[in-house]
Amino acid sequence: MPLLPDYHHFGGTHWETAALKNALAYAGVNDPTTAGPLSEAMCLGIAGGIAAGYSFCPSIPGWEEKLGLPVAPLAADASPEQRYMHQYRCGSGISIVARHHAFSTGADKFDLPLKRLGCKTTIKETAGAKAAYQHLVDGLAAGHPVFLWTAAMQLTWHGWAGTCGIYSTLCHGVDEAKGVALLSDRDKDAIRLPLDELAFIRGRVCSLKNRSLSFVPPAKLDVKALAKAAEEGIKACAADFIKPKLGTFNLPGLLEWSKVIASAKNKKGWQVVYPGGRLYLPLRDAFDSIETAGTGGGLMRGLYADFLDEAAALLGRPALAQCAATYRHLAGQWTQLAQVCLPDQVKPFKRTKALLHKRNQLAAQKGSKAGKEMTAIRSELNTIEDDLRQASPLSDKEAAALLATLAPLIASLHAAESAAAKALAAA
């Protein structure tokens, strides 16, 4: 049974939490308090919630020099690899972390919440493409969708095509006659991906070759079991804030960011790593990861606040509703920080924000059907990047002033997030 019958569960805010929501809805794991599917917010909370971290990959800056690439234009005799990298880029290597599980190479992002809800899970990995395909088909034949880990390469419906990050999604069918896999996450309809492309991106993640996760739902989810799962998710979130398993991907990383961003002496300082027009790259990527990378804006704080409101009623703990109000306020602070990263008075910065918002909207509303529009957006973003690399819109003094403005805002967010985490643990 490579095609699951009557599959109609699509859409969501973030591809991972949307995939979890959609899988549970199809499996009939419903919220016993409403008799309807679990909300995406509840899935986020049970999965361990949120983080507030900083990711910097030092191997990314300067990729064009490493490949012998000019900034622009590309030479007529450039190699295929150079042409590919010049078209799709690698970004800055900077990301502001909304969920630490998104940066983990383990299967926790799906395995933990499924087990907390009473599901039985099976995780498989293999170096072979044929075996990987068989794992997928076998999982579908059992009657439930299958979670897949892939590289972010060639995901044109997200506007990504050349990054080296990890993407996770849900497969609800394989149409062998048409040679496509059917995927379900944040898009409102099925994403149709050619099987050869799926095989390619599944095999591109070296640390977890061709991983898949299939599951069997519990016979029934009652109120007591859901409340326990929600409480375990809250405890896990609070514990990771207070003592992170992946340090820089939570509060220690946020504190480090506040200290290095405006430093002219630290080797990780932004003006040191990204001189001149290259500063545009981390400013753009910081804005994107806070506002337009499937977070719902505000670094996912609004979605987590929705969960805490549900949990407050489910667990009978009004203090969780107070925490929800705190995280909604934090969402506004994160959005403010993102806006300061790309000030509107700099025209290419303002245009970049408009393009990123449009890309995010297309990913959620049209998915794989937005290929041409996504290509046009990526092309314009590349043009802005090339132009600003050659002629920065900010003088060195203006760039230093912008970073000096950001540093205390980040430090203030670190303090506020630390206080919110303590209140969450207490609640």
Task: Please specify the SSE layout and strand pairing.
Layout lengths: L14 H12 L13 H7 L6 E4 L6 H4 L13 H9 L5 E4 L10 H9 L3 E5 L4 H13 L4 E6 L14 E10 L4 E4 L7 E4 H9 L8 E5 L6 H20 L8 H10 L9 H4 L6 H13 L8 H15 L2 H24 L5 H19 L5 H20 L5 H31 L1
Antiparallel strand pairs: 1-2, 3-8, 4-5, 4-8, 5-6, 6-7
Folded structure, characterized:
- The chain is an alpha+beta fold and 427 residues long.
- A hairpin with a 4-residue loop joins strand 5 (166-175) and strand 6.
- It is built from 16 helices and 8 strands.
- The protein has helices at residues 15-26, 40-46, 63-66, 80-88, 108-116, 129-141, 195-203, 223-242, 251-260, 270-273, 280-292, 301-315, 318-341, 347-365, 371-390, 396-426, and strands at residues 53-56, 94-97, 120-124, 146-151, 166-175, 180-183, 191-194, 212-216.
- Helix content is 51%, strand content 10%.
- Helix 1 packs across helix 2 (40-46).
- A 6-stranded antiparallel sheet has the order 3-8-4-5-6-7, with helices on both faces. Strands 1-2 form a two-stranded antiparallel sheet.
- The protein is globular, with a radius of gyration of 22 Å.
